[in-house]
Sequence to fold (628 residues):
Amino acid sequence: MVPGQAGDVVQARRLERGLVRVRWFAVVLGVYLVSQSNAGSPPFASTLVQNLAFVLIGALAVGNALVWLASERLRTERGLARLGVAAFILDAIVVFTLAWLYSYDPKGFVWVVIYILPLEGALRYRLQGALVSVVLTLASEFAREAYVAGRFSHTGIYAGVHQEKYYFLVANVVFRVGIEAIIALVAGFMARSLAREAERAAEQAMRFEEAARREASARRELAAFNTAILAGVAAEDLDSSIRLMVGAIGPDLGYEAFTILLRDGDDLVVKGMFGMPEYEGRVPIGRGVTGMVARSMKPVIVPDVTKFDGYIMADPSMRSEMAAPMRIGDELVGVVDVESREPGAFAEGALTLLMRLADQITLVAHSNRLLSQQRETMRRLQELDQMKSDFVAITSHELRTPITAIRGFVKTLLRNQDRLTTDQIANFMTIIDRQSSRLARLVEDLLFVSRIEAGTIRLSMERVDVEAFLHETVESVGPDRRPRVTLRVQPGTPPVVIDPQRVDQILRNLVENALKFSPPEAPVIIAATVRGNILELAVIDHGVGIAPEDLPNIFDRFHQAGPVLTREAEGAGLGLYITKRLVEAMGGTITVESRPGEGSTFRVRVPKDGVPGEVEAPALSPEPATRG
Fold:
């Protein structure tokens, strides 16, 4: 094996075992030929020569056995290479020694065994090994030629046979070595050619293997992308889409742990996790591996998470991590994260795959988000359409009722004024006035709603005495209903700075509602307390209460329980909406507690220490459409 071109361990062991089998054949053949060396015509080998030959064959057999055992135990190319050198030296010693032992016959042909060496050298070391054998043979044959010429320097009887004088001839050496050189060149070139073919075949096999690996990886990646798209599109909402994608992609790509985090303000929130216990905390952007990726918008590989400063541990068994950002343009959508229990488990190729995967997940998530927004928009449009229908129905009904009453009594007065008594005329005028007031309140409410939504409300802040202010509010409900209203003011309540007109409007709306939806004999309570910097006003009734399914919607525009045209109570469903928006304009809150059949309690909390004078109310966020 030429340095730099050594085969793998299996190939080297296979070569040694093959040569061991050849040597066993040579041992058997050698024993037979040595035993038959004196069977023909003289000259005959001496007993010493025969014994030495048997010893040499025995040494070859022992060495061959040792080579076999060593080839079984050695596990490295270097060890097998050293064994090959030792085996080649053993074979060279045996071959050259045999050639010298049988030099007692100047015309003998035992020396042809030297032709074995270039063949073995070519097998082991290709052309270089074959040529080394030629060089060794050249030195040996020059020395052996000189030895034979010296031993048979004159004509005489040798080993019982007449021998002519042997002359030292360079031509003899050139002939023997030349034949070996030809064998060496042929064998060496063939071995080199075969080795190159083998190397090309191995390179081609590696290319095929790499291509197969890339194809398998591409198929796996394509399957994961296809799964991600199908799973993401199949879900109706983004969170379900993320969970389905995580559960499908993690096993498909063989990840030990796979997580998708989405951005929520300045944090990342885990939306889907595979292979690890669910992490319920939030990850601040800039902290941990995923937080760093979110801040830098660049992918990263962490070979050892124990050496990463600020690593967020979700599973103590994890040792390495890689993460890539999910983004659309310069907007961060989230981060995809993969972890492994093996240190240094991820290479650049794995990170490249994760980046492509992140892009696909981003598109699916963005598409799902747009689809969700579209569904929400459609829902809102449907609600707006329903609200428009309700508005038309309510306003038509609420406007028609007082207008019909007014026109009817006016026509009656015009036609029968001579026949009507003074009391009847006064009664008709009272009804006309009441219906006119109802009509005016409805128009005023509609105009006020438009001002609220246009953001043109202004507040006139004044210092007022709470108890006196509430007494005026109670008086304004009218003499017929005033006895039903009870006032409870915490003793020692200090003056407050509020907009008395707007607070009075809030209380009147709540009291009117409480009286409207309570039995005629049921009392209504107005309670007032000051807690810190907050004025708390409560309107408590013992009426029919509010059904649980209606509670989330009672502050919406045009909302009233029951069908639009069949409910018993009057009103366009704007009172509580106006009340809530006024409270919010003053920086306060309004809540409701109610049990059907037991009554309701509305609590209004507004700041009590405003600055006297006229101020513009803060801008209000658009009110959502009526919820179903």
